[in-house]
Predict the 3D structure of the following.
Amino acid sequence: MTLATKRAMTAYAFLALPLAFFLAVRFGPMLYMMGRSLTSWGLLRKTSSFVGLGNFREILADPVFLQSLSNTAKYAVFGAPAVIALSLGIALLLDLVPRGKGAYRLIYVLPYITPIVAVSWVWRWMFQSPPLGVVNAGLAALGLPAQEFLNSPRQALPSILAVNVWVELGYCTTVFLAGIQTIPSEVVEAARIDGASARQVLRKIVLPLLAPVTFFLAVMEGIQFLRIFTQVYNMSMQATGGPLNSTKSAALFIYQKAFVNFEMGMASAASLVLFAIIMAVTLVQIRVLDKKLNY
Amino acid sequence: MKVRKAGVAAAYAILTLFSVTMLFPFFWMLMSSLKDATQIFQMRLLPAKPTLGNYAYIFLSRSSRFPQWFLNSAIMAVCTTLSVLFFDSLVGYTLSKFRFPGKKLIFLLIISTLMIPTEMLVIPWYAMARSLKWVNSYWGIMFPGMISAFGVFLMRQFMGTIPDDFVDAARVDGQGELRIFLRVILPLVTPALATLAIFNFIGNWNAFLWPLIAASKPRMFTLPVGLANFSGEAGSDWHLIMTGATVSMLPLVLVFLAFQKQIVRGIAMTGLKG
């Protein structure tokens, strides 16, 4: 055996177990589920039969699934841009201040590293109706009327969305700040010397140079909001995505179909629909944003 | 120059206002955990008579399962992290420092698994765990996270910064390949290992969806699943729910304060939730 072959054998030996892992725990299950989405698979049923695209037809005609998809769209369409705009603003402000950057950033990151289950319950407690909820107490102190928040079919989704923005804010701010710090100060100084105003520097230099970071975050946050589950599970009554399914996300719908109703075939079909949407949105985002970036 | 000063002052004001929004929920959680069953219903920022009774209940009462959940979370987060550290650095090293046919394909194969969301995989994982009798066991909860594709990517990047000469010199010395990896390579990438360990620990400690599915017996719950379950049944015992929330955050806040530099740097490189 030559030395090169011997080294290659070593490499394969090192990779054998990890590769087996990825095949058995990622690719295998995914293919298995794709196959199963075409069957009437249920945990309570003894047998399952091939139903073709029946599950997909049924799931796409289910008003609750369609509502969960529209809710998911709302989370993503309003949530991701909100968190990106807010964090960009904060990062620019942080860049402006001479002292205390680190301390502020630390405070902003705190919600991001704490368990979502815990912060969800904290916010649920804060959103309680008067006289329990501290948010309503604050509104009352300002002379504003009490709000229903999580109990109202209209306000529940925006409330959960706002909490997720609060969670993700520190992550995006940190990434933005790192991006701002890679902009060479000579570029900004040169523009200043040429008589550019602060606003011009921001619009013509800083923001265009931050485009790749913004693009990365848009994709990441888009996916994050499309997958929203834990917040909805913990902040809605009885973990059902209520009131009246108004907060139910696609991920929660899939969970309920699979692990409350044990309709595994249907749940598999639904999760493939969600997967297709996530992939499509990601690809469109990459396309559109890429075009805008490469001018 | 005056305008600039005013601008900086305004920036401080806005940043401080945001800080209050970020911190207030934690403050309110902590204060609520120090109130008893009657004080919790009084709207006071600071408890009139702060008490540690809720903590005594959570940690010491016979009916509380929090100590068990705490232990479960700790054991599983540590074991998964150790496994990820070993395998991810081994794969990253192999993909960076060895030459063999199929290298690129294997790398792409591993990286492409990052695109598959957990939400999709939990259904087949559950079918798998059921047929192999892994439900309600540590292994059943841990197995999907034993190797992380993201970590492989990270470690491969870091291994690339090690000069090939190091590996060659060790080979000339006649050391075995596994020994080279453990004794020569791993010590060179300790900063990367630390980052990976911290992120993996945090991610595992916070994981919810799969532990929720993989454990149906309360004694097997992780802390987040236990907290969700406890809170769902606690009704209006908000003082206990807030204490449970505080307890479930405690280890993370400590990890965070101890490793803030690595965490911020790691986030700046990329996200930590998978």
Summary: Chain A touches chain B through 89 residues (CB under 8 Å). The domain at 53-293 of chain A is CATH 1.10.3720.10 (MetI-like fold).
